[in-house]
Structure formats: structure tokens, C-alpha cells
């Protein structure tokens, strides 16, 4: 199961970021989202970045204690809380700022446990959850 | 004390650009009765208004308000309302824009902004969370809206220019062109009613909001989410294609039905014949430049079309903000016969910061004057005007926006000003140029909103959404459409007792009044006025939007409060319109539409039935409780 992105179908409405923020923080915004839309207004080029689209996986090598691992099932990374020392290295390493440091430790996209809210709301099919 | 409500930031900014003072004001319980957006902006404006105030006065405040749903994950919840006295009408000017600027303002912690006074030098107001900075902006004078966006974004955050949201005036706003617009993030315009001229007179080149990490709490997330999801599912089931198919399909349908206005609304058939296949040649599809539509915040409709011209005289033109109404304006009224020409005019008007509805009306009026011999090159400063002459039209647009020459400065005051000086035909209602629908061609149930609108000649705030009335249905589908319409009980039966043809003047009056009430609600919540265009009014004002408001804010909004909100907005407009001399006699289209039949095409022989319209007006005044003679709210029933 993977979260697939069809860039051509994205109209840049940022609904995915809004519902992600809402689910996590119970408030409306973009900043709490664990995924991002980059808008280029003059060319209508919109790029969706989420944990599953990452090519570098810099967070994996940044973690010295092996607390962060690839979740092969969903294509995203998963932080094992018990092992994590909350040093923030993964947060710094993520090239798109998609790992957020909270009081309990770093948080990354867990695909909403297997039914991502962003794909449920995306009105254009740009984000699709492929089972 | 700042209110802790969902949906609202809880406070708004009052910025005096003359004294450079900045005050934060809280939303109080009285203001909250006006919901937000258009309602709150109208209330705040009315508190500052006094009879005798003129649009050009420094004391004319520019009031900008988001709604409590702006920035939420509700379909089309991106809108921001702008209210001030309009230079075009001197009555209340009410405009509205989408995009991301309003959402950014709420994230910065503000529901609205009031700009007061007038600065001595050109400035930009920069809002960065709690901080407000006045940025000297003399070097931006003369820059178009896109350059202004680019330069301010570079200056404020060169690394992340997309995090700088700029609401700017172009050269037209600087020059006080009466129909100057405000443009946010390149393509989102508060275009109608000349709000750009108001900001320009205050010597404010731009209001900039920087993205910040703020967010807006929601009181009842599960309930809001369920309502929102329900609305998105409605969109999926009723989806009207936008993007290329929607764009060209609309134009095609207008051509087939004869709905394209002819040159300055002359009676013949429009020569507009734009082939959708040719349009497709200009659509480039790549990850860097996209073929499908572009959206404002949270919008499933993607109603902006993107094109790129790789050949021809406008080679290099890239525009991602095209809307089909511009084809009727530039193609129909001004006679431009190519897609590229229409798109170039749309781009130039966006960049110069003029409302293309009014600008195309003014240009068509000027061409008409020239072709009929009422004006010559001596008047126009050497420009020979002709239908469809793109070079001449673009030249005139530039001169108007930059205030170059006596004729251009006169044209900058609107088509009524041209007609007053030279004669000829000006298509305005209460001083505002009509958006482009010829009332002889479109069904009356769609176009009649022009006569009652809180702007002037513009049916967008009331009957523009009644697109379902433009379709042909089989009898059983027609009954299903009526069944789905969420119009309050009793009123629906008054409007559509058995079919989708409104039930005489009384039914038509009910249709307008209900359309206004609905649109006043949506514009106050922060929802796009065109939302119901797609959803065919299948979501109820009270049980859907009222409950959505409740789940977001924790406050109640029932049917009576929604009706009161609409009444207050409409009465406020009407009182100010009355103060500047408008009365029942001005609730009319120009005589041409009643007297000159269409001579060719599907609309052949049609004129507007004057007595039917007058009876509808009488019925409408009666529904509103307005004086039948003056068309003004009666003092004893006035709710503001």
C-alpha cells in the first residue's frame, strides 16, 4: 500500500496540508502538516512532497541509534519511540522538513495508520492510496 | 480581550497609513452577529460611514475581512471580502477574492484589516504575525501587479518567495482608474467596484502577508469533518468539468446558444467563433507547466485554466489564471476573434490591475464611439479604434492604466463618463459596467440579478449561480433538480411550483431575494460565491452551512440569523446608494435592451419585456419591505 502522487492532476489547493494539520492539531493551518505542497503560481507547477516520495532517506543515516526505519509496507519512515533519544538529527536531516519534533519525540507521516486523510480529501485524485 | 472561538483569529487590524498608527481590535459580540467576511466588513464600514463621504476621501476606509471558514478544509473556503465606497458608483463597493492571501492573514492571527487615511508617500504594509511594518515603496510605482509581487517577494524572502502573499494595485490603481482592481498572488483579483482605486488613493501599493506557522482552532472537528466530506462527495457526484474541457465547453455552449454579447451590445449576432480544438494547441502539459486547472485554497473546482503560447505574436505568454467569462468580454463585446488575442487582453488587464469586466465595457464603448464617428483620432490621442483590433485595444488599455492623455483619463472614469462626454451607449446599471451577459440573450431568471445586485450591473451576488436554469432537462430530471434544490420551505414552491421556469414576477423576485441571502451568507463565511454554480444549491443554508459554522466556531447560526444577515447587507448597500442619488428608476438596464431586438442568431427577435421586469421589481421591493416608489428601505423596517 502506497501513497501515490500524480503531479499533473494537482491543482495546488493545499487541502492535503490543511486536513493533515487538522488531524494532528485539531486546528486549520498548513504548518502542522507532515506533507507539503510547493506552489509555483506563474506556471501552475505544484509539487507534493510527502514521506513516501523521498529519494534520499537522509533521516535513516542521520539517526545514530537506529530508531528510524523504513516502513516497507507504506513506503514511509517510522520512528521507534523506545529507541529514540530525541536528538533531532532526523528533523534536521529531512530535506523537506517533514519530520516534526514534538515533546514526545520526532513525528513523521504514518499514512494515518493505513488510510491517509490527505488522499481521502484530495479532490483531484492527485494523491491516491493504492491498496 | 481576545475571544477564544473556533474559526476566527479573534481580532482585526486598524491601520492608519497617514499617522502610521496600528491598532488591534477584538471581535466583539456585536460584530460576531455579522458572521465574518462580507457581513463583518460591511458592519465595520458602516461604523465609519457618514452621508457625504466620497470614495476619493482619505476617510473612506478600505475594509478587508476573511470569513470564519476561510482557510478551513471546506470546499472553496478561500475567500476574502473587500468593502469600501466605490469610485464607480460612490455607493458601497463590494468585492471579493480567493487564492491564499486570506488564509495567510488568518494564519498570521488576523481576521481582517481596515486601512484608514492616506499616506503621503507610496508604501506597502507588511504583516508578519503580530508585527506590522510600513515599507517605503516609491520604486514600485508604475510596476504591474506581477512585478510588484515578484519584487516584494524577493525583497522580503528571496529564498521562499512563495511564502510572501502580496495584495497589490497595478498602475491603474495608482492612477485612480475607477475600475482598478486589487490582485493577490498574481491571479486572485478583487476586481469589481474599483477597490484598487481606493487603495491607490491611499498610496498603498501593496498589503503583504507573510506565511507564518499559525493556525485556526476548530471547536468540533468530527462534525466539521463530516460536513466537509459530505460537501466534497457532492462535488464528486455533480462534477462539472473545469480545466480545458470546462473552459472551451462553456465558450462552445455560449456560441451555440447565442449567449455571446455582440460588440458593445449591438443587436446583431456576435461574430465570435472560437474553435475549442485550436485552444487545445496552446495547452502544454508537463510537470513544470500544467494542463489542468489551478485552484484557490481548498477548492475542488480548479476553475483557472493554464495556457502557454509557444508560437505567434504573443509567443512566451504564460497565463495560469484564465476564466471563460473573459472570452465573452474581450471576444464578444470587443470583437477579438482569436484565443491568443483574448488571452493577451486578459493578461494585460490582470497585470495593469483593471477589472476586465469594466475595462472591456469601456473599450467597447470607445470603439463604438469611434466607429460611429462621435470621436476621431484627435480625441483618442492618435489611436484608431476598431472591433477586434488587438493592438489598438491593448494600446488603449495601457494608456488608461497609466493615465496617458486626456481621453484615456476620461475613459479611466468608466463608460458612463465616455457616454456623458460623447454620447453613445454605455452598458451600466447603477454606475457599474455590466459583466457581459446580454439580458436579451440569457434567460431573465439568470440575468435579472443585475438590477438588484449590491454592486450595480453584476449578477454574480445573486442570480449568476442559477446555472441550472440554463440547461434543458427532460421532465423527470427537471423534477429531480427541483427536488434537490435546498431552498427554504414555502419559498421553493413560490419560485418553482411545477417546473424550473420561475413562477412569474413574484417567483422571480423570490428567486433573486433567496439568491442574495445565500450569497451574502457564503461571502460572510468565506466561501466562493460560485460554489453553488457547481452544487446546484444542493446544500442548505441553515442545515449545512449554519451547522458547519456551528461546528467550526461553537456559535449558532440559524435560518433567522441568516435571513437577518442578508437583509442587513442589502439594506446597508441600499441606504448608501440612496444617499448618493440612486432610486428605483436606476434599477433598470439601459433602454437598448428593451427596445432593440436581436437581429440574428438563436436569440433573433428578442428584447427584454419591460413591464414584466417592472412588475418583478415591484414584487422584489415588496418582499424586501422597501418603498415601492423610491425602492429604498423604509425607516421603520430598517435593520443595519
Protein described:
- The complex is a heterodimer of chains A (131) and B (640).
- Chain A is an alpha+beta fold.
- Chain A is 20% helix and 27% strand.
- Chain A has four helices and nine strands; from the N terminus they run E-H-E-E-E-H-E-E-H-E-E-H-E.
- In chain A, the strands form four sheets. In chain A, strands 1-9 form a two-stranded antiparallel sheet.
- The longest helix of chain A is centred in the N-terminal third of the chain and has 11 residues, at 15-25.
- Helix content of chain B is 40%, strand content 12%.
- By secondary structure, chain B is an alpha+beta fold.
- The interface between A and B is large, with 35 and 45 residues.
Short key terms for the protein model shown above:
heterodimer; A: 131 residues; alpha+beta; two-stranded antiparallel ribbon; two-stranded antiparallel sheet; 9 strands; B: 640 residues; six-stranded mixed sheet; 25 helices; 40% helix; 12% strand
List the helices and strands and how they pair.
The complex is a heterodimer of chains A (131) and B (640).
Chain A: E1 2-5, H1 15-25, E2 27-28, E3 35-40, E4 45-50, H2 58-62, E5 68-71, E6 76-79, H3 89-93, E7 100-102, E8 105-107, H4 117-121, E9 127-130
Antiparallel strand pairs in A: 1-9, 3-4, 5-6, 7-8
Chain B: E1 11-16, E2 21-26, H1 29-32, H2 37-48, E3 62-66, E4 80-85, E5 92-97, H3 101-107, E6 112-116, E7 123-128, E8 131-136, H4 145-157, E9 164-168, H5 171-174, E10 182-184, E11 188-190, H6 195-201, E12 204-210, E13 216-217, H7 221-237, H8 243-257, H9 276-280, E14 305-308, E15 318-322, H10 325-333, H11 339-352, H12 356-371, H13 377-380, H14 390-402, H15 406-411, H16 415-422, E16 428-429, E17 432-433, H17 444-447, H18 475-484, H19 491-495, H20 504-525, H21 531-535, H22 541-553, H23 559-579, H24 592-595, H25 610-624
Parallel strand pairs in B: 1-6, 7-12
Antiparallel strand pairs in B: 1-2, 3-4, 3-6, 4-5, 7-8, 9-10, 9-12, 10-11, 14-15, 16-17
Helix pairs in contact in B: 2-20, 2-23, 7-22, 10-11, 10-12, 11-14, 12-16, 20-23, 20-25
Amino acid at each position: 500500500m502506497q501513497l501515490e502522487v500524480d503531479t499533473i492532476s494537482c491543482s495546488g489547493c493545499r487541502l492535503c496540508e490543511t486536513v493533515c494539520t487538522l488531524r494532528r492539531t485539531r486546528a486549520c493551518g498548513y504548518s502542522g502538516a507532515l506533507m507539503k505542497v510547493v506552489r509555483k503560481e506563474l506556471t501552475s507547477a505544484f509539487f507534493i512532497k510527502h514521506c513516501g516520495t523521498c529519494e534520499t532517506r537522509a533521516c535513516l543515516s542521520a539517526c545514530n541509534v537506529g530508531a528510524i526505519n523504513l516502513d516497507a509496507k507504506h513506503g514511509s519512515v517510522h520512528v521507534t519511540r523506545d529507541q529514540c533519544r530525541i536528538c533531532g538529527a532526523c528533523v534536521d536531516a529531512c530535506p523537506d522538513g517533514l519530520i516534526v519534533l514534538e515533546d514526545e519525540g520526532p513525528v513523521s507521516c504514518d499514512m494515518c495508520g493505513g488510510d491517509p486523510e490527505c488522499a481521502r480529501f484530495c479532490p483531484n485524485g492527485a494523491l491516491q492510496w493504492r491498496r | 480581550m481576545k475571544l477564544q472561538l473556533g474559526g476566527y483569529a479573534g481580532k482585526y487590524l486598524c491601520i492608519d497609513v497617514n499617522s502610521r498608527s496600528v491598532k488591534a481590535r477584538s471581535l466583539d459580540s456585536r460584530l460576531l452577529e455579522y458572521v465574518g467576511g462580507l457581513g463583518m466588513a460591511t458592519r465595520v464600514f458602516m461604523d465609519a460611514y457618514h452621508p457625504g463621504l466620497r470614495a476619493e476621501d482619505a476617510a473612506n476606509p478600505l475594509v478587508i475581512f476573511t470569513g470564519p471558514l476561510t482557510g478551513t478544509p471546506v470546499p472553496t473556503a478561500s475567500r476574502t471580502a473587500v468593502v469600501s465606497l466605490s469610485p464607480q458608483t460612490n455607493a458601497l463597493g463590494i468585492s471579493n477574492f480567493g487564492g491564499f492571501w486570506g488564509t495567510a492573514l488568518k494564519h498570521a492571527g488576523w481576521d481582517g484589516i481596515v486601512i484608514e487615511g492616506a499616506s503621503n508617500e507610496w508604501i506597502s504594509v507588511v504583516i508578519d504575525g503580530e508585527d506590522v511594518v510600513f515599507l517605503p515603496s516609491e520604486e514600485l510605482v508604475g510596476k504591474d501587479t506581477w512585478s510588484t509581487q515578484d519584487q516584494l517577494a524577493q525583497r522580503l524572502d528571496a529564498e521562499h518567495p512563495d511564502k510572501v502573499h502580496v495584495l497589490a494595485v497595478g498602475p491603474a490603481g495608482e492612477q485612480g482608474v475607477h475600475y482598478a482592481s486589487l490582485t493577490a498572488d498574481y491571479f486572485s483579483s478583487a476586481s469589481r467596484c474599483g477597490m484598487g482605486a481606493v487603495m491607490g488613493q491611499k498610496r498603498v501599493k501593496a498589503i503583504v502577508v507573510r506565511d507564518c506557522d499559525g493556525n485556526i482552532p476548530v471547536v468540533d472537528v468530527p462534525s466539521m469533518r463530516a460536513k466537509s466530506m459530505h460537501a466534497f462527495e457532492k462535488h464528486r457526484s455533480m462534477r462539472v468539468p473545469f480545466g480545458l474541457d470546462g473552459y472551451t465547453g462553456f465558450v462552445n455552449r455560449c456560441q451555440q446558444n447565442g449567449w455571446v454579447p455582440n460588440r458593445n451590445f449591438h443587436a446583431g449576432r456576435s461574430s465570435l467563433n472560437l474553435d475549442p480544438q485550436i485552444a487545445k494547441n496552446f495547452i502544454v502539459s508537463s510537470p513544470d507547466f500544467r494542463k489542468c486547472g489551478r485552484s484557490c485554497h481548498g477548492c475542488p473546482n480548479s476553475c483557472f485554466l493554464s495556457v502557454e503560447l509557444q508560437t505567434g505574436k504573443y509567443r512566451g505568454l504564460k497565463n495560469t489564471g484564465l476564466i471563460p467569462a473573459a472570452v465573452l468580454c474581450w471576444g464578444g463585446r470587443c470583437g477579438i476573434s482569436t484565443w491568443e488575442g483574448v488571452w493577451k487582453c486578459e493578461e494585460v488587464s490582470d497585470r495593469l490591475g483593471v477589472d476586465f469586466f469594466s475595462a472591456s465595457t469601456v473599450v467597447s464603448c470607445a470603439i463604438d464611439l469611434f466607429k460611429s464617428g462621435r470621436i476621431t483620432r484627435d480625441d483618442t490621442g492618435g489611436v484608431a479604434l476598431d472591433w477586434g483590433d488587438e493592438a489598438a485595444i491593448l494600446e488603449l488599455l495601457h494608456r488608461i492604466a497609466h493615465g496617458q492623455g486626456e481621453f484615456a483619463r476620461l475613459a479611466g472614469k468608466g463608460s458612463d463618463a465616455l457616454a456623458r462626454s460623447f454620447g453613445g451607449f454605455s452598458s451600466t446599471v447603477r454606475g457599474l459596467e455590466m459583466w457581459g451577459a446580454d439580458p436579451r440573450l440569457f434567460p431573465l431568471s439568470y440575468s435579472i440579478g443585475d438590477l438588484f445586485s449590491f454592486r450595480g450591473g453584476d449578477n454574480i451576488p445573486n442570480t449568476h449561480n442559477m446555472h441550472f436554469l440554463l440547461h434543458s432537462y427532460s421532465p423527470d430530471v427537471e423534477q429531480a433538480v427541483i427536488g434537490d434544490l435546498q431552498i427554504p420551505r414555502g419559498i421553493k414552491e413560490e419560485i418553482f411550483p411545477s417546473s424550473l421556469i420561475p413562477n412569474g414576477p413574484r417567483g422571480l423576485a423570490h428567486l433573486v431575494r433567496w439568491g442574495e441571502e445565500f450569497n451574502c451568507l457564503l461571502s460572510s463565511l468565506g466561501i466562493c460565491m460560485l460554489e453553488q454554480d457547481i452544487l446546484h444549491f444542493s446544500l442548505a443554508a441553515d442545515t449545512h452551512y449554519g451547522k458547519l459554522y456551528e461546528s467550526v466556531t461553537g456559535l449558532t447560526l440559524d435560518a433567522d440569523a441568516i435571513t437577518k444577515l442578508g437583509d442587513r447587507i442589502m439594506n446597508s448597500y441600499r441606504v448608501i446608494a440612496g444617499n448618493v442619488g440612486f432610486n428605483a428608476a436606476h434599477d433598470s438596464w439601459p433602454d437598448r435592451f428593451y427596445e432593440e431586438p436581436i437581429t440574428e442568431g438563436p436569440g433573433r427577435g428578442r428584447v427584454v419585456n419591460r413591464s414584466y421586469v417592472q412588475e418583478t421589481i415591484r414584487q422584489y421591493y415588496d418582499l424586501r419591505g422597501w418603498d415601492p416608489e423610491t425602492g429604498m428601505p423604509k425607516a421603520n423596517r430598517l435593520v443595519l
